[in-house]
Amino acid sequence: MFQKILIANRGEIALRVLRAAKELGISTVVVHSTADADAMHVRLADESVCIGPPPSRDSYLNIHQIVAACEITGADAVHPGYGFLSENAKFADILAAHNITFIGPTGDHIRIMGDKIEAKRTAKRLGIPVVPGSEGAISDEKEAKRVAAEIGYPVIIKASAGGGGRGMKVARNEDDLSVALATAKSEAGAAFGDDAVYIEKYLEKPRHIELQVFGDGAGAGVHLGERDCSLQRRHQKVWEEALSPALNQEERDRIGNIVASAVADLGYRGAGTIEFLYENGEFYFIEMNTRLQVEHPVTEAITGIDLVHEQIRVAAGGGLSVKQSDIRFQGHAIECRINAEDPRTFAPSPGTITHFHTPGGLGIRVDSGVYSGYKIPPYYDSLIGKLIVHGRNRVECMMRLRRALDEFVVDGIKTTLPLFRELVGNTDIANGDYDIHWLEKHLANNPA
Ligand code: ADP
């Protein structure tokens, strides 16, 4: 097992990893920017190293500084959290070259899944259902028209290097296609320095359903069920739940078995998430994230498995602690992402939290790095905490969520808590009847 883990992240996820390391008896080092000197992860870690000024590129994305921090402190492994360097293949390779373990997959697996065309090709080869579309990159309009006519309109043009929902354009008919292709290409080039794009069928009313997977890197793979993350705004997840209200056990077993054997065949190591759009009973692969997800606690709630313990264990060569037949799903869990944002406009609301009081009681978990008197720096994302609620069934979970939201107090800044208070009382949400467009439509129909 590792002696000392360096956590290359900040905020709630740095704290999350720190807790897991402490429970395993492993020492912790955190790195931080000058803006985060007062952060909770810095206060609770055994050691901390300031690695630079506030902008992420100079601190949390600064590979040289992070490797130097490992060498100074003698850390033998790095947990990257999510975001920042978590899906940076070069970072994984550099750590390996320094004999420091990257708690995550190999650089090569990160590289394959980071290139969406390559990822889709790999998924298809492994037997995972994909969205019908072009085999590879689309080079010209003629080819685009041919593929679109074959799969049928509407189609979506997506950047191979894409992320965060950027560089995607929908074409409803052949007339739209040339403009959509040109815009997607130039947006992709500007945003990612790579203008390769591909085409796929545009699904009108899908749900976003993702499968949590784990591999031991040596041919074993399991799945830990799905999360339904259909409630999104601008492709950002807002509310996640497990299991999905839309799936039955037979569908879950079918897709679960497919992804678990794909992970095993790939020789994948560590935690991963295979994301699908789900429509009319069919799954369509969109991408694989080769890291821990923000919404991982809903899976922990229904399986009782600590995913970060499992990541550390697998990275240390200890293999998976569970077989597929050991994994049982109990009850229902919902996560609300609490952001320092205006609940209607979603404009960031940095500032000082004058009062912070979290709910408690059975089935409640709050993962947050903030506290009363904490000043939210304006440089990073706006997530200030996650409320995760577990109940024996979805109805109990929703009732518990409602009362937990009533207890939650965050003063001094605007947060998205009022939005969740509204959602928990909505009939469609109560019925689990929503798709990936539901939230944006609801917000448009209910202006402040
Ligand atoms: P990114 O990596 O930029 O987030 P994804 O491939 O994960 O890109 O897609 C992000 C979102 O875009 C999806 O959650 C979905 O809302 C929408 N989307 C992507 N592909 C399709 C498609 N074929 N049909 C309909 N919507 C899509």
Automatic annotation (TrEMBL):
EC number: 6.3.4.14
Domain called Biotin carboxylation: residue spans: 1-444
Regions annotated as coiled coil: none
Highest taxon above the source species: Bacteria
Pathway: Lipid metabolism; malonyl-CoA biosynthesis; malonyl-CoA from acetyl-CoA: step 1/1
PROSITE patterns: ATP_GRASP, BC, CPSASE_1, CPSASE_2
InterPro entries for the chain: ACC_Biotin_Carboxylase, Acetyl_CoA_COase_biotin_COase, ATP-grasp, BC-like_N, Biotin_carboxylation_dom, Biotin_COase_C, CPAse_ATP-bd, PreATP-grasp_dom_sf
Transmembrane stretches, start-end: none
MF GO annotations: biotin carboxylase activity
Top-rank EC class of the record's enzyme: ligase
Keywords carried by this UniProt record: ATP-binding, Biotin, Fatty acid biosynthesis, Fatty acid metabolism, Ligase, Lipid biosynthesis, Lipid metabolism, Magnesium, Metal-binding, Nucleotide-binding
Residues in ATP-grasp domain copies: 120-316
Pfam families the record matches: Biotin_carb_C, Biotin_carb_N, CPSase_L_D2
Catalytic activity: N(6)-biotinyl-L-lysyl-[protein] + hydrogencarbonate + ATP = N(6)-carboxybiotinyl-L-lysyl-[protein] + ADP + phosphate + H(+)
Function: This protein is a component of the acetyl coenzyme A carboxylase complex; first, biotin carboxylase catalyzes the carboxylation of the carrier protein and then the transcarboxylase transfers the carboxyl group to form malonyl-CoA.
Subunit structure as annotated in this protein's UniProt entry: Acetyl-CoA carboxylase is a heterohexamer of biotin carboxyl carrier protein, biotin carboxylase and the two subunits of carboxyl transferase in a 2:2 complex.
Protein name, as recorded: Biotin carboxylase
Species this protein is from: Mesorhizobium liriopis
